[in-house]
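Hi,

I'm pasting everything inline rather than attaching a file, because the server keeps stripping attachments. The sequence lines come first, and each chain or strand is labelled.
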Amino acid sequence: MTHLRVEHAGPATTVQDAGRLAWQHVGVSPAGFADPLLASLANALVGNPPEMAVLEWTLHGDTLRVVGGPVRVAVAAWAEVQVDGQPAPTFRSLRLHDGQVLTVGPLTQGRHGVLAVAGGILTPLVLGSRAAHVRTGVGVGALLPGDCLPVSADPAHDEPDRRLPPEHLPTRVDTLRVLPAPQLPLFQPQALPLLLAQPWRVLAADRMGLRLAGPPLLLLPGVEPVSEGVVTGALQVPPSGQPIALGPDRQTMGGYAKLAVVVTADLRHLAQLRDGDAVRFVAVDPPTAHAARSYADAALAAALAAIHCVHDVLPFESGRLLRLLS
Amino acid sequence: MTLTPMGDAALLVTCAAQPGAEASAVVHALAAAMTAAALPGVLALVPAYTTLLVHFDPRTTDVALLTGAVHAVNSGPPGHGLAHRAAALRSKSAPGAARRWHIAAVYDGEDLPWVAAQLGCAAAEVVARHSAVEYAVACLGFAPGFAYLAGLPANLHVPRLANPRAQIPAGSLILGGQQTAIMPLPMPSGWHMLGRTAVRLFDVSRAAPSLLMPGDRVRFLPTAAADLTGAPPRCEVLP
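And the predicted assembly:
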């Protein structure tokens, strides 16, 4: 059985796919990709469908040794990547042989990065998904040195490698579009203008949510919100008045009032914010949110279409070059 | 009934102004009807106390289509609209509408003396009050299989812990504010520990992973520690 053995683990590495949206009625958090665009690109570079399970890094990559193989992988992250100590490119597929070591260092931009493996990561399905939800012990997450991650051997080893042209690299945005939430009327009238008036600082972020710091956003006096279903991207406001933006590991219901909701097209930007970053919010209407979704989908389709084959030989592939020449 | 988008991929249907048995019946009837309708693009239906949240894929459907579907379910064919179905659920006349679980509980929780002192009664009285009534599953949330049980008698309402515990054991029978629940897995909690049960509330190897479902009824049977077994609780299907 081919696997990747963890030699050094980043602080919060998990296996993720599109998650378990359909089990929320029995209290199961959706989990799933923090940045679905990175996952789609990495998967496409190794010939996978967009929602196949990937390894998701938080702030720092892992050191992984190939056992068995060969495997084909792609790193979609802003980080220094090495194979056996030799520099290796990101946003390009890499062919790795038994015993080779892939090292992904600290992420220099954004909060999350992704590793896709051709044929997929083969951890067990739980309720139809491989996504990890570490808080409730679902799926494979919080990787530690010595852990072995079952993966597919390269299903098409003779195919050339693939690369994403730099002009299609994902971009970074720190102004996020929001729609007013259904509970807006529970807030004091100045709460929404206050949310939009200045940048908010990310105090602490994880996959469950991002705590934001700024002026207090206050409810009308005497208001007691009733718990209701929540969505990823909702800005919920506890009595402190400091909002929490919900991430994919959010609970299914929440008792805090929601002031606004980040549009789905911008959720990946929310997930990529780091502690200390500043973020702004701008209110949009539903047609604009819909157009943003369509625009993001079209940009992804264009990026996928631009992925092309490469035939260059990377420094760590000199063994392969020798084999080719002999 | 009011419908409000929550972001661009969810629609919040508010069925009632106040939580309660009537609100729950309407929410559960709507959830059942929407599940049966199997509308394209609907990714999840999350019932809560007064609301049903419809998660959808904005590439496949939209708020206008879903609003039409909710209104169609709400009015329904003559005599079979949502009000009719909710009334049937409440009167338990709908077939298979509700189940009653009899769950063995050992009332030896470390907060039982505190709860009794807070209420100014004996610990045995807390147990008697807690096990005398039937609870209804209003909704599930917080953790997989965690059922919010409505129906806690007012003479058991106590404020939650000022400092939540970092973790309490799976099976803990807990009490907080106006609600009671069983903790399905080790989790942090700010509710009081009244005792423990041996039920497996959530098991992904079962066809229906969650033991309790919205609308189910629950009774607790005070049980001696020596008699607590892992056997599945007795389930009565209400006529």
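Chain A has two domains: 3-164+310-325, 175-301.

If the labels don't parse on your end, tell me and I'll reformat.
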